[in-house]
Specification:
The mean pLDDT is 88. A 5-stranded parallel sheet has the order 4-3-2-8-18, covered by helices on one side. It has a 5-stranded antiparallel sheet with strand order 19-20-23-22-21, with helices on both faces. The protein has a 4-stranded mixed sheet with strand order 1-7-6-5. By secondary structure, the protein is of the alpha/beta class. It contains 12 helices and 23 strands. The protein folds into 3 domains: 172 residues, 3-Layer(bba) Sandwich (FAD/NAD(P)-binding domain); 120 residues, FAD/NAD(P)-binding domain; 113 residues, FAD/NAD-linked reductase, C-terminal dimerisation domain (Enolase-like, domain 1, 2-Layer Sandwich), CATH 3.30.390.
Length: 471
Amino acid sequence: MADLAKPDLCVIGAGALGTALAIKAHQAGLAVVLVPRPRDEANDPTAGSLRRAAFVASAERAQMLRAASELGLSNAEPKPNFRTIGERADAIAEAVAPRDTDERLTALGITVLSGEASFTDRQTMRCGETSIRPRQFALTTGSQPLVPALPGLDEVKFFTPDSIGDNLRKLSHLVVIGGTPLAFELAQAYRRLGSMVTLVPQGGLLPGFDPELVAILLRDLRAEGLVILDDAEVTAINKRSQGTGIALKRGEAEDSLDVSHILVAMGRTPDLDAALLDPTKLRRHRSHADRLLLGPDGQTSNPRITALGGAAGEDEVHVGLKQASLLIDRLSGRGHGRLDENTLPRLVQTRPMLAQLGPLDATLRPGQSVLRSNLAENETARAQGAAHGVAKLVVDAKGSIAAAGSIGQGAGETAGLLAMAMTAGLRLGDLANLALPQPSAAAALVDLAEQFAGQQAKAGWAQKIPLLGRR
């Protein structure tokens, strides 16, 4: 007779997000069962992010050598060793792997099951000899690269963001198909390491990001030699004896490219195992059949199942971890578990970095206004030879921050401070007295706060108090 477990939470998927959720839930006093899957070890988003960060860091150092004269030093053309760069990136990513072994998780008090897993009904899962009927299931099964149905693509070898890290050779001419943040990050990195790179933003040019900030980014990337065909669309891939042909449509005209390698970076699709999930009868999204129909807290059409991270169509690691924290709060009775998208920084981790919170290009509501700060006036940016960029805020008449965006030196840190301020309900006026170390890349926040204060009409008594003081 099979054992019946009734934990508070059953986590399906033992990648980085799944194990982090299991550990945090256990620390919160919840009984947790973790069900690994055969594919959990492949393409882990945390390991992938670390590997790309290490690769991008090597590319950034190469660009520093190339542009050293801006800081009074002699320029030098770098000579990248791709094998060494790749081995360093792998070592950094692998350093995090041994921390969450089954033995360690078991020692912490988490039940880790093994064996083939499947749902037997909408409330119960069977794994090996154990049946599990928890208060809540959490799907942390991750995602896979989205591969479009381009004619000829299946006849040639191509990279995805998950596989290009295995490349240990210089790529003579790389075409990047996709307009996602990751497409831009990898395109810039390979360009900085000496490859000729052409980017075709298939499917949209950084959708959701402010057009003005995107235009600044495109200008800077083109100045580094990255070719961005924002008016083109790939229509077919042509296999040749030497290299690969890329057929393009540019407006009404036809064009083509001869390239050595292809990187497809058009986003990801949730890894939803049909054989596993079919008995749960989860509803799919009407316009995206590869995704589940989800509520604002990741709740599926089955109230006992919540999807997180890649399984919920969310590919940024920090957003998945936030979803996990909210689920734990909900199960522990400490919160309603709702995710506020406007307080989550969305990043394009190029150089310069682009960061955004909320929709900057949305129609302004009555009483809202847009404030801007030019980073050319930022002392830290000028000292580091990066004195260009913009910070923008959408605020209402009381100084409540509705949306924010920044591109340039310190954009990520600035977005982090703003996210904390928005979550805490702080208004822009509260940021005017930030005690920042000088010089500081986040000084643009103080500038924006001072702009806002200067625009506010002073009340009658506020005008009279200085006069009374003088008398």
